[in-house]
């Protein structure tokens, strides 16, 4: 038991060192530094709002907020799985020489991207503030926002599972890296991030049940935009999808990890 | 790859022996290669490293397959599991606590493969490898370094990867810097360092701890003469003052003879000779002269 605790403590130290490293490397030598993680989603949102508001006349209340909530959550999953996917290949020199818990590399990317996500939440706060200040708006922020950590837990577990799975597969087949890029693009459009859910055909609406990202994005909008309490069903759905992803990822990873060293 | 260390502090010697026996049951059967890492040293067991009948087989046909297309073509043509390369064959090795063991052999004879199995990064195809004690691999210095980061940051990063705790690193930070003699350059990114300077930091991080087992692979060939001497002194200090078990691989046959007491000669993946360092080194250099 004590041994287990000591191992966990060491793994945690490795994880935090790697996150610190990534954080320093990302923001070193850029004048605006951390600010970019806030500015980037804001600027993206402005572009997308401009494009979609003028091109299509959708009747989505608080469209900017609707949009930014969906995109930053989706970007979190996309970024953490994409960088998690190559994490084992990138750590090849280490894996070949040092005995180290290999699951740490994809997991570290998920934690690091969560950090970036938290920074970009400032962008959401700015959008909320601007919307609330508008005298014509009816937006009300409720205490339901307190559910956010729970949502982040689900999404993190979900991304961790995908990252573990992809990082293990990418070692054996580099095609996975290229395929995943295309897949995430398709996934972006298959999830109601820019457009309202009602716009979809009825068969697509029912197919949406199987899209985990749809549920996570709904959850996020419910607690911030609409002020709904996420009911038990939604919570269970989100948790179940996260657990399935994590279990599958961990299973595949632990089955394959012995052979990594021969292929990286 | 490595199952959680099978030692719990507070076990009696008998219980530990039972555990050890359980650990090595896989030994000898095909496809059940194991490497067991035991973190805390068990004093009742005289062996630091016990390698028994280790084979290491690489599938050469598998090596270059990196795309799904290639994979399916090979599956269809039934070429997938063809060419096998035996990097190690039936290697058995017993290293007692406090032994200083040299491994000699030509390039590609399997020395590094053997060290990787002992260090626990590679799992043997057959046979078993049981490690009793903490292990510090110097297989390639500075494996976890990031060249964009400063030396100070790298010390913490590399230290964490080697399994040190944060408090341990904080405590020994000065000792590491002192040994590497690089205090003035601490906050410079590592990419601005010369390779010798990088090796110095790596060596001092790896040897700041007193490991039960130290694996040294060609590391002393980097750095200038003074630093090489300093490294050799540090290794000798670990041997004489702390009873560290050392596995030493080098092409410098005089160095092996000078540092080691016993030696193993690996030739084309097989154990050619095992004995005192003097005997093995003599036979090896004799053989080299005759061939060369």
Description:
The complex is a heterodimer of chains A (264) and B (292). With 264 residues, chain A is mainly α. Helices cover 76% and strands 0% of the residues of chain A. Chain A has one domain (16-263). Chain A has helices at residues 2-27, 35-55, 63-85, 87-90, 92-97, 104-133, 148-172, 175-190, 202-207, 212-226, 232-256, 260-263. The longest helix of chain A is centred in the middle third of the chain and has 30 residues, at 104-133. Chain A is globular, with a radius of gyration of 20 Å. The mean pLDDT of chain A is 90. The radius of gyration of chain B is 21 Å and the shape is globular. Chain B has helices at residues 13-23, 60-63, 68-76, 111-119, 151-161, 166-180, 195-207, 225-242, 253-259, 277-291; strands at residues 34-38, 47-59, 84-96, 100-104, 126-132, 135-138, 213-217, 245-249, 262-267, 270-276. In chain B, helix 5 (151-161) crosses helix 6, helix 5 crosses helix 7 (195-207) and helix 6 (166-180) packs across helix 7 (195-207). The model of chain B is unreliable at 1-32 (pLDDT under 50). In chain B, the strands form 2 sheets. In chain B, strands 6-7-8-4-9-10 form a 6-stranded mixed β-sheet, with helices on both faces. In chain B, strands 1-5-2-3 form a 4-stranded mixed β-sheet. Chain B is α/β, with parallel strands linked by helices and 292 residues long. The interface between A and B is large, with 35 and 43 residues.
């Amino acid at each position: 038991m004590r041994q287990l605790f000591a191992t966990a403590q060491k793994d945690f130290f490795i994880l935090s060192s790697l996150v610190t490293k990534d954080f320093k490397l990302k923001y070193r030598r850029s004048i605006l530094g951390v600010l970019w993680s806030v500015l980037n989603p804001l600027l993206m949102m402005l572009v997308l709002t401009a494009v979609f508001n003028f091109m299509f006349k959708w009747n989505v209340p608080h469209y900017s907020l609707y949009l930014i909530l969906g995109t930053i959550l989706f970007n979190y999953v996309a970024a953490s799985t994409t960088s998690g996917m190559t994490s084992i290949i990138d750590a090849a020199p280490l894996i070949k020489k040092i005995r180290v818990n290999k699951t740490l590399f994809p997991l570290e990317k998920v934690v690091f991207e969560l950090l970036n996500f938290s920074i970009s939440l400032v962008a959401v706060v700015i959008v909320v503030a601007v919307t609330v200040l508008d005298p014509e708006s009816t937006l009300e922020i409720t205490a339901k926002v307190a559910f956010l950590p729970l949502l982040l837990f689900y999404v993190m577990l979900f991304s961790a599972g995908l990252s573990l799975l992809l990082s293990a597969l990418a070692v054996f087949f580099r095609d996975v890296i290229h395929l995943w890029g295309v897949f995430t693009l398709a996934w972006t459009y298959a999830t109601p991030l820019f457009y309202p859910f009602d716009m979809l055909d009825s068969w697509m609406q029912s197919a949406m049940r199987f899209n985990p990202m749809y549920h996570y994005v709904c959850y996020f909008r419910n607690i911030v935009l609409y002020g709904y309490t996420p009911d038990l069903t939604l919570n269970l759905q989100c948790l179940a999808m996260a657990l399935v992803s994590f279990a599958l990822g961990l299973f595949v990873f632990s089955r394959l990890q012995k052979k990594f060293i021969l292929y990286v | 790859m490595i199952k959680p260390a099978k030692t719990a502090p507070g076990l009696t010697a008998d219980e530990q022996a039972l555990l050890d026996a359980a650990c090595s049951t896989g030994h000898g059967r095909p496809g059940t290669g194991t490497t067991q890492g035991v973190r805390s040293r068990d004093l009742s067991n005289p062996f630091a490293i016990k390698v028994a009948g280790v084979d290491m087989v690489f599938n050469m046909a598998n090596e270059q397959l990196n795309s799904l297309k290639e994979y399916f073509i090979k599956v269809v043509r039934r070429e997938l599991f063809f060419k096998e390369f035996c990097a190690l064959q039936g290697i058995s090795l017993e290293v007692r606590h406090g032994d200083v063991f040299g491994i000699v052999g030509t390039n590609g004879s399997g020395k590094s493969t053997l060290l990787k199995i002992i260090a626990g990064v590679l799992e043997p195809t057959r046979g078993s490898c049981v490690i009793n004690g903490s292990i510090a691999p110097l297989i390639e210095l500075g494996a976890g370094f990031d060249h964009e980061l400063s030396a100070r940051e790298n010390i913490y990063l590399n230290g964490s990867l080697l399994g040190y705790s944060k408090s341990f690193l904080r405590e020994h930070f000065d000792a590491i810097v002192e040994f590497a003699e690089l205090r003035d350059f601490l906050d410079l990114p590592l990419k601005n360092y010369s390779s010798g300077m990088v090796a110095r930091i790596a060596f001092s991080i790896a040897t700041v701890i007193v490991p039960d087992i130290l694996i040294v692979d060609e590391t002393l060939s980097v750095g200038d003469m003074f630093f090489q001497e300093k490294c050799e002194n540090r290794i000798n200090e670990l041997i004489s003052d702390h009873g560290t078990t050392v596995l030493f691989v080098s092409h410098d046959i005089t160095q092996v003879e000078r540092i080691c007491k016993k030696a193993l000669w690996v030739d084309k993946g097989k154990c050619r000779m095992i004995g005192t360092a003097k005997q093995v080194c003599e036979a090896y250099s004799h053989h080299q002269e005759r061939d060369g």
